Amino acid sequence: MRFGLGNAYISACGCELMKVLITGAGQDSSLSTYLHLRRGDQVYVLTRRRADGLTDQMQKVIDVLGESPFFVYADLTEYENVFDIVRELKPDMIYHYGAMSFVPYSYNNPIYTAQVNELSAYAILEAVRKHSPETKVFLPASSEVFGKPVEYPQRLSTPLAPVSPYAISKVALLYIADYYRKVWKLKVYDFITFNHESELRGEEFVTMKIVKNLVMKGHVVLGNIEAKKDWGYAGEYVKIFDRVMEKEEPKRYILCTGVIASVKDFLSYVISKVGGTYEIDESLYRPVDAEGMTCDITEVPVKPQYMWWDVADIMIKYVKYGTLTFPEVLGNV
Length: 333
What we know:
seven-stranded parallel sheet; globular; Rossmann fold
């Protein structure tokens, strides 16, 4: 496969722009695609080919912008193909969002979770090490690495205590990042990111499940509503990722709002806005729930401005009226 243009190129404005590779086509991948296309960068999206076309999130970005990134098709478990794509493309930046990111699924599919989340990172970083050592690489971990935290709030120094195969794979990702940064001096930025949602979030995630079901059906069935999380706005988070990648040194970062809420808090807020009822189905409980999740806000590189109630409002506006917030948040890049 050949990709044509060299790394940096000059736009009509005379600005030197970048070649960016983004893996995955879900919420964060789509928002980062929007940000970099809006800026004028040359954007490649590595995603698996789907019989039903693009994901709704990526299609929404293309519809809003009226332009598309270049698509490169491969499954993240096709490690040789992933390696070859990075080797030939030699991007300035890689955002490796592509992952098996639905925690409940990981309990019954731990091997696949490890194959996707861990080994694909090795393929990408080995290609960077051998063929593009100046490339900056973003690896997103998760607050799930803290499991049932031994301290509150969590810090970069908090011991890791994963309680799901998904979380274990993200712990591995942190060590993989450490290895390539320390041993091979690669420019790897790994982020322990706390929950971040948006209007592009899929309904399999509890926040959008609550909003969509209450707005459209007036009723929602849930599992454990006592679990406590720290929810930020994904549009703001990807903007922070980009800023750190551009201006800060490669190392480990942590990102949260510093405000914690339970699923019940989120649910009650949405009901206060749109009405509706709910019921609890204990079969939806996870075997073990990571909870009490928020970080020490003094350790974040940029303090987020959108809190969990803002996220709820953004989701409600989207489900009720189709109003998109991310173009406004990512518009001035």
